[in-house]
Amino acid sequence: MLSAFLILLGCQLLGDVIRTAMDLPIPGAVIGMFLLAAMLVLTARRPRAAVLVSLSRVAGTLIEFLGLLLVPAGVGVIAEKGLLTMQWLPILAAVVGSTVLGTAVTGWVMHRAIASRRKSVAQQRGAPARKNPS
Amino acid sequence: MLIGIALVAALVLATGTPYQTYYTGAQFLTFLLGPTTIALAVPLAKHAAVVRPNLRSISLALLAGSVTSIVSGVAIVWLLGGSRTVALSMAPKAVTTPIAMAISEQIGGMPALTAALTILGGIVAAVTGQQVLHVLRINDWRARGLAAGVAGSGVAAAQVAASNELAAAFAALGLGLNGLLTALLAPMLVALWR
Prior knowledge:
Chain A is mainly α.
């Protein structure tokens, strides 16, 4: 369990080092996440290695308690309540509008891309569209 | 989680504790956000196998959804007369909260405000998302899952994941990949907006 946690911290450190060394505008933790994901995909053939099992367990626990970790940040908003009361309209409109728009665009493009691929596969084979192209 | 925030906020206000004092005390929780962000790699890697057969569709939808979320969030705040700080805090709000906070800090927003916006956006996506997709006649679970993960942070992703296994995989993917993509795109798009 300790080694799994050290892997997580090590990836964060590595991400921060890469960010500083290459002067990237990306948060170090995101670089670290990408590195660990790449590493896990590459080692996917040995899913039962002890470190990987405990890593998976530690990660699951941390993600499960993500809500608790966010409480200080959420409380931080009360320190800015003047900002919130002054700009409640742009904030509320943007959260609702942008979220609905983002959902619709992502879903629609994905839907169209799957449909067009299905059609082109069917044309190549001269057969009716398959139900499940994956 | 919202109840927890409300309770702690009420306690901090009632006892007259300066936020700075509370923040210093709660620093350990904030410290754990870093490893938790890294931990998101585990569900991302677990579902990486479904990427390859859908690579082109996922790339297109992810790019379109990510740009739409960033640009529309900033644009609506700006059009309605919000400040630049609020607009910048809005930019990464579709991404999972720990990544959104890191991006917000990077581009000059307020991480605490971004965290609140992310959670709020996640609730909006969880409540309206499936309805919106239904109206658009998008019934494919891959599209529904990806949309929830890309646009609705962890809240909507968890909600859609509960209803379908394929949607769960695509929601986890959308969540992780959009975290990466927004971390790349947001600083670039913000640099264009002066």
